[in-house]
Structure formats: structure tokens, C-alpha cells
Recover the amino acids of this structure.
């Protein structure tokens, strides 16, 4: 039986087709095989993943893309359950090349010399490929259907062809890079990963009962603090509705979390998912609706644009054609009331017209005037309170609770490392403190750069830190770690953004920066959002006033 890495792989956290493929391969491959499911990568600000990487001492690395349901290729277009999809061949090939570049960046240009690497696609719900089929860029040996999955060793041997033995130490080094959770050397980075897994399991236990409320209710408002499991509930409900044949819209406002959610539903044609603005622009594309104003555009231009968007959607509603049985809105506090009305109009009049809203008033950074959303109980809605913060260690949750009352952590959460505080008087000191702390986490404690975020309460400090980072790189100041905006992220850089931008996301380690007066408009909420992004490690860089508010000492 093959080994799955990580050992605590959760099949409920991935697409149904991927879970099915992993289970079949684990059961029917020999002991020398390692199965790495859902391996992520980030390149040029774009996230992706390879569904499965198989590792074997003679076969090297085999990259697989799994697609469930009915698969067809008509006139050069791939279809999944009758709907167009991106070519799975292109998808797995792009993922393979991205992972190869990741390995070479980390382990050297020669890291893959002598290591065979090939790719294929898996259609677990297709019985067999019709005889005589010819598909561009896809040899028939590269297709694994339900027939090949009966005897996967034979199918993989045909796919790989000539084999080449690779040393166990070298393969182990590659596996450690792709799955760092298997490395237990006692460093802080390894401890943090273990804590994070415990927190994830804690969240699953706490929301287990709540998860079934969708089977009894059509309209729910779920509210609770950061880390209460709201997004996990949204994902579980979307999956269950799609499995029952319902058309689902799952959306939020912030692009980072919206695009992450999008990656979870690539094989679910009944689920339309993504951040609201890009979805709206996609629906309006036939009418050439303009792109949003730049971040530095005047506020009146932004206001006018976002007021025009729902009107345009309403105007073209009958032509857009999208209709849903269930609408799920995560982080509902970010939505203007008129946006919610526009989304509600996309429910099919003939369908069940189900609506689930999830949010947290304490994370309302945009002040969109939604008092009526939080008063839905008088209109036949079921209100579902979640009161346990399961995302953060007790140390981080204690800091969050000093900012917003009623956000205490679940008692069984792990204690975690103490929160660190570094005093600064102004922007000049901030860069040095942030640089040193990020270096400490990355170099001494081996926390992956892609798991560290620098979060600021104001955009001007974010821009200052990114500028200082690139100035240091241009001067050639030693081994400088790059700070980049979310849109430019990759696995060799640290994301530096505002709390506004990173709402809904979570990071293993966060360096929180604040130079604003703590009685300033929205600063406390911005701090609350920022610190609760950290699952296991939090450092605060800020004024003495910030430390006093958070009860921290240098």
C-alpha cells in the first residue's frame, strides 16, 4: 500500500474526484510509492496546484491532473459534464513545469538531473478511452481511466517507459521541499506546522454539528469572530449542494480569499465561485463594462464605479443568463446592500432560492452601512452564532480579545509561542525591524516564505516597506528577502499588504505593523483583522501606544 504525505491528508478538504483518485492509488500501489496530493505553487502572482505527484525510486516524479464526471473532447474543446473547461493536459503540464522550477530554485539547477518526470491525466469516472482515439498532445498512455486505476502499477509503468534509479536521499530532499510537514527536526518552523494542523482539526470538530444545518434551513446568517470556521462551512455547504444537483454561487469581496476558494472547485461545474467584482466583470464582458479604477484613483471615481456596477448587472440581468439555486456569501460585512440585492436577483425564480450569509461585524473595515443584514432574524432567517476562535493559538487569540471583546479562543487551542513586540518611532525604523524579523523566521526558524505575511494598517507603510525591500535588492545588500504585493507574490517572496487586502486569508506567521494612533478611525478593527490572520506566530512592530493597547512588552 502506498503512503500518502501528509499522513493526516483530509479527503473532505479536496474535490471529490481527487479524493477518489488518491484513495484508489493508495490502496493499489506498492509500498515504494509516495502520494503527494494537492501540491500548491505560486508564480508571478498566480496560484496553482498539481492534483497528485507520485514519487518512486525508479519512476521518479509523475504529475497527474484528476477530472471527475463525464469527460469529452469536441472540436478541440474539453468538456466536463457538458460544460467547457481548461485543457487538463495544459493544466498538468503547466503545473509540472512550475513545480520543476520550484525544485530547481530551492535545490539548484541540477536537482532534477537523472530524475525522470512525466505527466498524465486521470478520469476516475470514465470507464475507458474509446479505441483508436487520437488526442493532440496526449498519448493514450497518459490517460488513466477507471480501467487503468484497477491496475495502476501497469498503467504508470507504461506512462513512464524507461526507468532510472534515484537515490533515496535525493528523493527525500525533493519530498521535504514539496511537503515540508514531513520534516521534524525540532526547529520552530516544524513546531508551527504541527500547531497549525492541530488548529485545523480543532476547527473541524467545533463546526461538525453546525455543518449539517444546511440540510434543514434555506436562509441562514452565520456570524462569529475571526477563526470560527465560517469559510469552512461555506465550502462544505457549496459541495453538498452541488452533489445534490443544485447550482451554487459562492462569492466574497476580497480577491485573495476569493481566488483561493476558486481553486477548490475546479471540478465542480455546478459551483460558480470567486470574488464578486471579477465575477461581475465576467458577466458584463459582452457589454465592455470598464475595469475598476486603480488603487490610487480619486475616491469619487471609485465610488461612482462601484455604484454603477450593480446597476449594470441589473440592467443586463435577463441577458446574463446565470441562475442559481443557492447563493453563499462569505465575509458578507464587506458587501454594500445594493450588491446583495443584485446577487439575490440571480436566484432562479423557479428554484429553491436558498441563501446563506456568513460574516463578522467586527471585521467591517469598509463601513458599507449594513445594519439590516444583521437584523435578519425578524424576516424568517435562521441566525447561527459561532463564538469560538479556532484559528489562532491561545497567545494570539489573547491579543485579539484585547481588541474586540467576545472573541476568545477555544480552550483546547494550543498555547503557541509568545507574541513578540518591537517598538519603533517612525517609518525609518520599521524597515529594519520588519527585515530582521522576517529573516529570523525564514533563515533561523525555517518558516517558508510563502507562509509569512507582513500586514500593515495603512497602505502608505505597506508601500514604504516594499520600496525599501527593492532598494536593498538593487544595492545588493546581501541576502535580502523580497517583500511584494499580493498581485506579485511567488514562493520566494513574502507578501506585504494591508489588513483590508488580506481579509479572509490565513498565514502561519504574521508580522503586524502599525504606526497610526490607536484611537484613529478603523485602526482597532484593522489591527484585529491583521493579527487574526496569524495561525501560530505573531510579531508586532509598532508604537508604544500600539503595545499598550495590545498589552505587549518589548
Amino acid at each position: 500500500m502506498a503512503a500518502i504525505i501528509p499522513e493526516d491528508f483530509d479527503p473532505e478538504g479536496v474535490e471529490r474526484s481527487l479524493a477518489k483518485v488518491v484513495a484508489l492509488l493508495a490502496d493499489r500501489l506498492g509500498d515504494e510509492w509516495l502520494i503527494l496530493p494537492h501540491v500548491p505553487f505560486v508564480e508571478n502572482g498566480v496560484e496553482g496546484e498539481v492534483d497528485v505527484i507520485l514519487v518512486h525510486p525508479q519512476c521518479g516524479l509523475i504529475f497527474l491532473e484528476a477530472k471527475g464526471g463525464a469527460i469529452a473532447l469536441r472540436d478541440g474543446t474539453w468538456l466536463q459534464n457538458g460544460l467547457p473547461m481548461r485543457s487538463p493536459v495544459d493544466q498538468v503540464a503547466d503545473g509540472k513545469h512550475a513545480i520543476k522550477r520550484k525544485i530547481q530554485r530551492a535545490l539548484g539547477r541540477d536537482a532534477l538531473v537523472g530524475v525522470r518526470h512525466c505527466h498524465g491525466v486521470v478520469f476516475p469516472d470514465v470507464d475507458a478511452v474509446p479505441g483508436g482515439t487520437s488526442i493532440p498532445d496526449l498519448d493514450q498512455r497518459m490517460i488513466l481511466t477507471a480501467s487503468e486505476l484497477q491496475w495502476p502499477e501497469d498503467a504508470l509503468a507504461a506512462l513512464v517507459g524507461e526507468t532510472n534509479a534515484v537515490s533515496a536521499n535525493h528523493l527525500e530532499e525533493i519530498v521535504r521541499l514539496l511537503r515540508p510537514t514531513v520534516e521534524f527536526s525540532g526547529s520552530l518552523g516544524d513546531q508551527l506546522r504541527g500547531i497549525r494542523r492541530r488548529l485545523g482539526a480543532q476547527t473541524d470538530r467545533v463546526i461538525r454539528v453546525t455543518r449539517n444545518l444546511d440540510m434543514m434551513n434555506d436562509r441562514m446568517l452565520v456570524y462569529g469572530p475571526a477563526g470560527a470556521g465560517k469559510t469552512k462551512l461555506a465550502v462544505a455547504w457549496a459541495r453538498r449542494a452541488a452533489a445534490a444537483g443544485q447550482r451554487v454561487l459562492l462569492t466574497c469581496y476580497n480577491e485573495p480569499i476569493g481566488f483561493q476558494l476558486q481553486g477548490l472547485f475546479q471540478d465542480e461545474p455546478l459551483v460558480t465561485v470567486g470574488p464578486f467584482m471579477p465575477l461581475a466583470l465576467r458577466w458584463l464582458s459582452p457589454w465592455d463594462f470598464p475595469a475598476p479604477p486603480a488603487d490610487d484613483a480619486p475616491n469619487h471615481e471609485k465610488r461612482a464605479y462601484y455604484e454603477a456596477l450593480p446597476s449594470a448587472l441589473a440592467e443586463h440581468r435577463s441577458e446574463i443568463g446565470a441562475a442559481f439555486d443557492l447563493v453563499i456569501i462569505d465575509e458578507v460585512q464587506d458587501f454594500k446592500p445594493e450588491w446583495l440585492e443584485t446577487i439575490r436577483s440571480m436566484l432562479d425564480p423557479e428554484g429553491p432560492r436558498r441563501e446563506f450569509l456568513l460574516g463578522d461585524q467586527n471585521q467591517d473595515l469598509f463601513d458599507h452601512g449594513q445594519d439590516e443584514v444583521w437584523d435578519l432574524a425578524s424576516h424568517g432567517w435562521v441566525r447561527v452564532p459561532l463564538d469560538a476562535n479556532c484559528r489562532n493559538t491561545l497567545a494570539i487569540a489573547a491579543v485579539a480579545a484585547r481588541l474586540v471583546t467576545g472573541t476568545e479562543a477555544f480552550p483546547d487551542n494550543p498555547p503557541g509561542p509568545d507574541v513578540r513586540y518591537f517598538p519603533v518611532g517612525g517609518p525609518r525604523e520599521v524597515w529594519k525591524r520588519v527585515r530582521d524579523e522576517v529573516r529570523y523566521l525564514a533563515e533561523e526558524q525555517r518558516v517558508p516564505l510563502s507562509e509569512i505575511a507582513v500586514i500593515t494598517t495603512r497602505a502608505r507603510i505597506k508601500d514604504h516597506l516594499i520600496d525599501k525591500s527593492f532598494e536593498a535588492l538593487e544595492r545588493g545588500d546581501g541576502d535580502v528577502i523580497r517583500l511584494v504585493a499580493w498581485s506579485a507574490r511567488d514562493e520566494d517572496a513574502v507578501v506585504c499588504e494591508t489588513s483590508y487586502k488580506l481579509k479572509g486569508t490565513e498565514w502561519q506567521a504574521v508580522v503586524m505593523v502599525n504606526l497610526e494612533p490607536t484611537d484613529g478611525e478603523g485602526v482597532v478593527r484593522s489591527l484585529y483583522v491583521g493579527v487574526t490572520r496569524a495561525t501560530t506566530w505573531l510579531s508586532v512592530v509598532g508604537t508604544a501606544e500600539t503595545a499598550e493597547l495590545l498589552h505587549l512588552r518589548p
Observations:
- The chain has three domains: 3-183, 208-385, 394-550.
- The longest strand covers residues 46-56.
- Residues 88-107 form the longest helix (20 residues).
- The mean pLDDT is 85.
